[in-house]
Predict the 3D structure of the following.
Amino acid sequence: MGIVVGYLATPEGRAALGAAIEEARQRDTRVVVVVSTRPDAPEEQRSALEAELDRVRAELATAGVDHEVRLLSGGDVADDLILTAEQVSAQLVVLGLRRRSPVGKLILGANAQRVLFDAPCPVLTVKPGPA
């Protein structure tokens, strides 16, 4: 059991991580952070990502939350989240969503939509606070 969170180093990703930490505390469970990368990402991008993931691990440790970080490459973001949720028998999946214009609100991102429809558990979506 646990909470699966899709993470990117963006305001939306940080909002999702914060919500996952709060949910994990309330449910007394662990957080599984899923980061999907492209297999052809440049080495400098991978190095920057590793530094960011060290920061994420530190934040989770400081929060006192049991955690795991999964860096997956080559897969589809939605598939990575859904598969991880199935593997850990997740109680919840947490996603960060971008703020959108009124017209954009009619169209949800393809990955978010797939996770909402296909996740084996409830999905919590969050937006970052005002900038």
About this structure: DSSP finds four helices and five strands in the chain.
